């Protein structure tokens, strides 16, 4: 867990998307004119472009049943000065979080039991890495702030939205004035303008972040609100955030894994419930009573 330390940001906007899928686009643009010897390698790159980041030219030739000379010719034809430049392009795409560039040719056990255990092990590793990196003092301060802030605002976009929503629905059960943004059809400026020094913004920004993440955090900082930024390990901290918690979300598959984020939010929520004590229990009781009155659940 980090506090107010600035690190370089991973790319996240539309221009970055074009830049960091340059390898695949270059292959597609040249594909029709490629000789057979190079097309075999191009087929492999189109199917698993991220493998370029992991292997040498010789290894890529072997994996694609081609030759090192054909790899060298292809890389030059694609507009890269050398193979290392193409590898850097693939690595940039992986860092950016493109699922296509995170796919690997073969990495999982073939039997079902082995695949299940492989799946479990990755989530356990991510949860362990994330939770063991927490600062006890910062964690207590975050819990105290969630409990005592005048308002708590949870915000997220794309995959981060459902994570922000999960945390929102835990906290809202034990305290008042908890909201989730963005809401359908609404802009954010009105809500951010209402934030003040006694409020807390919790921003979830997993990779392939939208540009609004940094802008909303900066705007909330100017409103003097406290800010918890929950992100992945490619992002680093933002100087405008009060606290930053980096979560481990990578596995060996093309899609990121959010088990560690949910586990962190569960840990936070349980601590908030305990801290809220009798006030939280009374709020939860009133909600349960209203469920019965409104007949919302079976």
From TrEMBL:
Superkingdom to which the source organism belongs: Bacteria
Question: GO biological process annotations for this chain's record?
Answer: carbohydrate derivative metabolic process
Q: Which SUPFAM superfamilies match?
A: Homeodomain-like (SSF46689), SIS domain (SSF53697)
What is an example of a Pfam family matching this protein? Answer: HTH_6
Question: What PROSITE patterns has UniProt attached to this entry?
Answer: HTH_RPIR, SIS
Where do the HTH rpiR-type domain residues begin and end?
21-97
InterPro entries under this entry?
Homeodomain-like_sf, HTH_RpiR, RpiR-like, SIS_dom, SIS_dom_sf, WH-like_DNA-bd_sf
Give every SIS domain span. 142-278
Q: Which GO terms describe its molecular function?
A: carbohydrate derivative binding; DNA binding; DNA-binding transcription factor activity
Q: Which PANTHER family match?
A: GLUCOKINASE, RPIR-FAMILY TRANSCRIPTIONAL REGULATOR
Record-given protein name: MurR/RpiR family transcriptional regulator
State the species of origin.
Hwanghaeella grinnelliae
């Amino acid at each position: 867990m980090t506090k107010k330390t600035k690190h370089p940001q991973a790319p996240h906007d539309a221009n970055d998307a074009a830049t960091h899928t340059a390898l695949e686009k270059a292959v597609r643009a040249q594909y029709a004119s490629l000789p057979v010897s190079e097309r075999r390698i191009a087929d492999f790159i189109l199917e698993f472009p991220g493998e370029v980041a992991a292997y040498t030219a010789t290894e890529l030739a072997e994996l694609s049943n081609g030759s090192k000379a054909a790899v060298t010719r292809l890389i030059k034809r694609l507009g890269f000065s050398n193979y290392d430049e193409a590898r850097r392009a693939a690595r940039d795409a992986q860092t950016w979080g493109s699922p296509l560039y995170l796919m690997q040719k073969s990495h999982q056990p073939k039997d079902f039991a082995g695949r299940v255990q492989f799946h479990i092990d990755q989530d356990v590793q991510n949860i362990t890495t994330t939770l063991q990196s927490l600062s006890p003092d910062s964690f207590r301060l975050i819990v105290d702030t969630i409990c005592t802030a005048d308002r708590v605002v949870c915000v997220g976009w794309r995959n981060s939205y459902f994570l922000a929503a999960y945390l929102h629905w835990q906290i809202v059960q034990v305290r008042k004035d908890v909201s989730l943004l963005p809401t359908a059809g609404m802009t954010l400026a009105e809500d951010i303008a209402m934030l003040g020094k006694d409020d807390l913004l919790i921003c979830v920004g997993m990779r392939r972040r939208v540009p609004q993440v940094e802008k909303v955090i900066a705007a909330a900082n100017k409103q003097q609100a406290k800010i918890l930024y929950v992100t992945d390990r490619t992002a680093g901290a933002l100087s405008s955030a009060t606290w930053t918690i980096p979560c481990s979300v990578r596995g060996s598959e093309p899609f990121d894994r959010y088990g560690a984020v949910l586990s962190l939010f569960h840990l936070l929520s349980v601590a908030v419930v305990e801290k809220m004590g009798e006030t939280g229990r009374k709020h939860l009781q009133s909600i349960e009573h209203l469920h019965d009155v409104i007949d919302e659940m079976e």
